[in-house]
Each structure stands twice: as C-alpha cells, then as structure tokens.
Amino acid sequence: MAQVESKSTGKVLSLLQEPVGLPYFVTSIADREGVRLPAIEPRQVIPQNITPEAVERSAGATYPAIYVYCEKLANSLREKFRTFSGTARMAVEVRVSQDRLEGLERKLSLYVEAVTDVLDARRGDWGQGLFYTGGYEVAFGPTKHGGKNFIQTAKVGFDVQVSVG
C-alpha cells in the first residue's frame, strides 16, 4: 500500500516540477495577467503533508510553496488478480505569504490556476499503472498570521486511478 502512495505522490511531484509544469504555467499566467509572480523552483515543490505552523517552527519556509501528498487510498479491487486497483486521492497544497494583505488572495488564485493548468494538460495515462481522468476540487483557506506576516493556503484535490500488481 505504501508503494501506491509513494508512486502516486512521486508522479504528481515530477509533473509539477518539469519545465512544462509549474515553471511554464506560472510564467504564462504572469505574462497574460500583467503581474509579477515569483517563479516556482523545484525545491519549492515538496512531497510532504505538513502544517504551515510546523514548517515555520522547523527550518522555515520559502514562499510560494507547493506541498504534494496522498490524502487517501481506496482499493476497490475493480480488476481481478490485481494487488491494488482503485483510487489515490491526491492533494496539492499551495501556500503564499507576504507582508501585506492586498493582493495575497489574487496571487494565491493565480498559483492555483497554474496547478490546475498542469493537471488539465496532463490528463490521461501517466504510466506505471496511474491514470488521471481529469477533474479536481479547490478549497481556499482563510488568511492567517504566519510566513512573511500573512499566509493563505488553497488545496487542489483530485483522484488518480491506480492499477498495480
């Protein structure tokens, strides 16, 4: 079961980090909207499920930050004789922070759009028994104190079909 989680998380991570992933779509959106959006470096896309408070208390964080993790696995055994044939519920959490409230929510929305653009562009067979049919949900969190004074988070949730073993 852990193999399914790590395989799913690793694949989403690689799709976001590749040159035609977040770097491409963030630049494209910034040009289209006429705004300055800091680029997303591969080191800012992290395979971990950790609260913003825990990150701040440990080594600190660089913003914007993208956290990728598997929220839930459901082995529905749709295919006979497979060890796992079901769904991996994936999450991509986008966190932005700045010292002023003005523009924070807009910046978050643009980064979320970049994440969903990557997903829209990569529908289909991801290889290694992973298949993304499309569709996602976005949940926006409230602005809080933290990060560089204010922090806001949004979570993009989506299902990946998995068939292994």
CATH topology: STM4215-like
Helix fraction, binned, reads: 25-40%
Residue runs with pLDDT of under 50 for 5 or more positions: none
Q: Strand content of the residues, in percent?
A: 35-45%
Could you give the distance between the termini? 11 Å
Shape: globular
Given helix and strand content, the structural type is alpha+beta
CATH class: Alpha Beta
Give a count of the beta strands, DSSP E runs of length 2 or more: 8
Largest sheet: 8 strands, mixed
What does the average pLDDT come to?
A: 93
Rg, rounded, reads 16 Å
Structure description:
The chain is α+β, with helices and mostly antiparallel strands and 165 residues long. It has a single domain (2-164), classed as STM4215-like, CATH 3.30.2000. It has four helices and eight strands, in the order H-H-E-H-E-E-H-E-E-E-E-E. The chain has helices at residues 2-17, 22-33, 52-57, 104-121, and strands at residues 45-46, 65-75, 84-98, 124-127, 130-132, 137-140, 144-146, 149-164. Strands 1, 2, 3, 4, 5, 6, 7 and 8 form an eight-stranded mixed sheet that branches. Strand 4 and strand 5 form a beta hairpin.
